[in-house]
């Protein structure tokens, strides 16, 4: 690597950008706020997507695809939702370009090709989908509808950051329709659990499940459930949300069904989504000053093997052994790359794969071969071990599992160490300005107080934990009585 | 099924729409020219996509993702390409809506949120991608770049048809960069072979590989290779294209590399794509008046089992046997559904799964069970057989293979029977107005003649077959000398 990466202590957000760009995950693009997801980053996303997609199907969902564009009149239909997204949506107004008479070789929007109705590029698809469900639902027999969509969406954010906040991003959005409120709420909670399961067991990132305050709710939802993760700088990151939409969209789009009692009733709805933002969380939670640290279960590349040799004869013997190891690993479904390119020295390769966060690196030299051993380096702890080549494949398989577990435990310990109770305003501010993290504090339950705290500290209520214990207390700002603590944090 | 499907003889294009809509593949949407791909249709697309994606990766390609939007200045850069797509592109001009003061509850485009530069919704991604490759390529060591993208694209077509021609569609677009012309041409041909392999061996649809005439080339390409399929109504359908782009985009975006001789050189390019249009081809090529006929290798559902019983006791015995069969099929990776819903009669279910094109249907009754047999119906020939329950799983596995093969052979025979030589203008017109299909005829090689023939007959040159035999002849229109026949047809 030419120059070193910015360290976390030096400049955390520059460190993050260095990892994304130099780790080969993504690039800036010519389009304001939009990024290019590079092959290495996209393979990571594919691995995450494939696991989630399997989980969705195992819970009875099917994929479908709905239009990218939402006609303005549909976009308007659910008022709160429209209000929430109107400020940041890309709008298509014309359907043709023509050559610019005053500017040879250039094009201009053709004023004669103006759309009768503007089209909003979907920031989320409730409107277009519920307008479709209207035609799909007549009786309770047509319910539930359990549909998911993998798609790109556009939200015209003013301040953007690679993966964390981009004008266009990739996500999945589940949109389900139910005959009863109970069933819809159950679906909302079930999908929250699916998200928590995925983020904890595949991304090795512990989360707190909770419900949002009205201020932080999805526009158009009755209740927004979320999973909140903690980054190394003590800031929180919302990793996924699952919304109970009540009958809001059914009413906005007149979606009724004939229930078992033969009565017309509005349909109950949920929606839930996670996005490429998760990749930002993954990077911020686990990586270090040498580069990315990726969990084995979703890493684009799990094992890299670097040969160390002088001359063809040595190389051939190493190649033969590597072919044998590679075969064994692939048979177990472990991805492996043999980097015997002669462009770079081993030392350069070590740094490169450290930067890219490959969980396990093998370095195999001629002398190792004679002694029937190999150097095995794990990315998470940077420990190196000399291991016998006997049963090396099984050793690596176990090591990958250990790394996955260790990464989770490390992140879990960090999370636990960074949930702090604050009982007074001074304590509250002190923690926020100190180690930060989650601050568990009492709040009087009013949006006004929530807003005031946000203005004074930039901290928001991340969630009211689902497993909260009831406890008498006083609001840290107003001193008014409160029955439970809520989790505050500064967040991405 | 309420009312019967329109028959092919009655109204071929209505028949097609009936199958798409009532077969549950897709729906019209509120957005002009855009469709909703329903779960059954999307599962079909997923199956096709997964096979193609595997083939791309086996040929060394990786997926990536590039922005949905193309700034006008980039869109303009490659003139031919811009000219080709300017007439049909959706243009984003604003990034915000605001509430309409004169129209309570309504929104309007915020004139203060006008973009400095308009953004074109990608109709294809060469421009945005080559503008990015510029930063990725310095020396021959950075080549080749073998990247594919699965994405949605928008082309503002005036006349649209479900799957065949929609304003928004899903596709994959491969974009590769090479150090030499030879390597780029080889890639172009290789991907054409991948497409032919997929369409013939998975979609059971025989194709003709060829090269397009300059008139029919992709805008910005040096050469466009294609695979052409034949529909049951004698019209041709372009099933996939692979383009050799020469150095056109490299020159438009100044993408040079340092070659082995240490000289700066422009990069060589290819692009290739297939889209959800393939689903339209699949439907038109194989289906019949009872509904869809889907090839087992990509069918969303391969086997359906319908129980025929009176009373719980009978049903329980059938359930037990079905559980056993289902277990066996799933173990072989065969998808199966047991439809024991009591909403509908067996007869209704038979018609429903025929409409949906499920390759194999089992009907299992109480008496069958006593005799240890089951009724097996295959969708392609509609033959029914009473088969012993002994080894039924192996029987079904073989039957699915037979159906796949039979569907291909049937389509191949149809294709062969519908390639007709025409040596005079009268013969040419006669065939086109008669059985249609491909007409192999001599052409003087000029765009003018090609255009004149198109105007008079609506027939276009689908391709110059790659395996063409050289043969002296006279152009059917001008009588001028010609060295080979080209394939004409009316096309979708």
UniProtKB/TrEMBL annotation, chains A, B:
Subcellular location field: Cytoplasm
Record GO cellular component, one term: cytoplasm
Aminoacyl-transfer RNA synthetases class-II family profile domain segment(s): 30-295
Protein's UniProt name: Proline--tRNA ligase
Enzyme class: ligase
Gene: proS
The record's note on its domains: Consists of three domains: the N-terminal catalytic domain, the anticodon-binding domain and the C-terminal extension.
Reactions this protein catalyses: tRNA(Pro) + L-proline + ATP = L-prolyl-tRNA(Pro) + AMP + diphosphate
Xref: Pfam families: HGTP_anticodon (PF03129), ProRS-C_1 (PF09180), tRNA-synt_2b (PF00587)
Family: Belongs to the class-II aminoacyl-tRNA synthetase family. ProS type 3 subfamily.
SMART domains: ProRS-C_1
GO molecular function, one term: ATP binding
Keyword Nucleotide-binding: yes
GO biological process, one term: prolyl-tRNA aminoacylation
Assembly and interaction partners: Homodimer.
Chief subcellular location: cytoplasm
HAMAP family the record matches: Pro_tRNA_synth_type3
Annotated InterPro entries: aa-tRNA-synt_IIb (IPR002314), aa-tRNA-synth_II (IPR006195), aa-tRNA-synth_II/BPL/LPL (IPR045864), Anticodon-bd (IPR004154), Anticodon-bd_dom_sf (IPR036621), Pro-tRNA-ligase_IIa_arc-type (IPR004499), Pro-tRNA_ligase_II_C (IPR016061), Pro-tRNA_synth_II (IPR017449)
CDD domains assigned: ProRS_anticodon_zinc, ProRS_core_arch_euk
Keywords linked to the UniProt accession: Aminoacyl-tRNA synthetase, ATP-binding, Cytoplasm, Ligase, Nucleotide-binding, Protein biosynthesis
Organism placement in taxonomy: Bacteria, Pseudomonadati, Bacteroidota, Chitinophagia, Chitinophagales
Record's function text: Catalyzes the attachment of proline to tRNA(Pro) in a two-step reaction: proline is first activated by ATP to form Pro-AMP and then transferred to the acceptor end of tRNA(Pro).
Enzyme Commission (EC) number: 6.1.1.15
